[in-house]
Structure formats: structure tokens, C-alpha cells
């Protein structure tokens, strides 16, 4: 399967597993999981034919490792980015002292006024990878990267979660913990 087809399937999976599982007749189980077999059947019933091998390829080749299989590979989920109501069941973790967030320069005034807010998602997404955050920012316009003083946030009582693909999650990053990266 070519890269364009895999990307199309990945986008479809993101929509279903993060936002609208009901669009194909699925319900997210605790942790955000759905049966891989049920997902393939739901996709097929809705005009997207995906083989188990292709699903494996989409999961393993996804540039940001957005999806994961359960240990026995019978279930699949999106690791983060949900707007659908779900408890991902991540445990609190202590982040590195410094984290990054990619955005567009046109959002800076608002961000420095109210901080990073989760919007319609469950969490604000942060990373240890500055370069990845530049790419994230490019999706929204002229990119910029913000540094987050995660060490001070933890000292001040803020909680963080971490996903299996090393995305750090928190409910809100108040402006005092932010500065524009060099």
C-alpha cells in the first residue's frame, strides 16, 4: 500500500478513535480501546476496506505513533488527542524539567494571556522534542515553539501524564510557565 493510502487510513482512524467512534457504530471501552476485529468490520461496513496487515502497517509506520495495540494485539486505541469522552487510564508521571509545545505565531497573544488550554481535547499536548514541535506549529501557520517550565509546574502542584509515544499531557499550562523558545 502506498504512503498516500496509509495516510488516508491513518486520518480515518484518528477521526474514529479520537473523536467519533459512533460514526461507524463503535463505542470506546475504558482506556479508549476498541476491538481490532470490530474496528476492521466497522470500517468495511462503512466503505473503507482495511486488512489486518494494513492496520498493523498503519500503526507501526505512523510518524507520530498515534495508535497502539494492546499487548495481545486484540484491541487498538489512539494514544491521545481525544475529544470523545474517554478515560485513557494513564498514571501521573514526573516530566522532564523542560517541555515544548508547537503552535503558530498568530496564537501567541492569546496564549500569553490565558496560557495553553486544552480546547475540545482532554489535555494540552507537550513534547521533549523541539524539532517535532516545529512541525506541529507549521500545521497552523508560521511556526513557533514554546518552552514549558514543567519542573516548576510540578513544584506548584500541576499534574502530568505521559503516553506510550512520549507525549506529555496536562490540563492547562498557565502563562507564567511559558516562554518562546529560541
From TrEMBL:
From the UniProt record, report the name of the gene that encodes this protein.
kptA
Q: What is this protein called?
A: Probable RNA 2'-phosphotransferase
What the protein does? Removes the 2'-phosphate from RNA via an intermediate in which the phosphate is ADP-ribosylated by NAD followed by a presumed transesterification to release the RNA and generate ADP-ribose 1''-2''-cyclic phosphate (APPR>P). May function as an ADP-ribosylase.
Q: Which InterPro entries match?
A: Ptrans_KptA/Tpt1 (IPR002745), RNA_2'-PTrans_C (IPR042081), RNA_2'-PTrans_KptA (IPR022928), RNA_2'-PTrans_N (IPR042080)
Record organism:
Blastopirellula marina
Database matches in HAMAP family: KptA
- Keywords noted in UniProt: NAD, Transferase
GO-annotated molecular function: NAD+ poly-ADP-ribosyltransferase activity; tRNA 2'-phosphotransferase activity
Q: Which domain of life is it from?
A: Bacteria
Is Glycoprotein included in the keywords of this UniProt record?
A: no
Q: Which family does it belong to?
A: Belongs to the KptA/TPT1 family.
Biological processes per GO annotation: tRNA splicing, via endonucleolytic cleavage and ligation
Q: What is its EC number?
A: 2.7.1.-
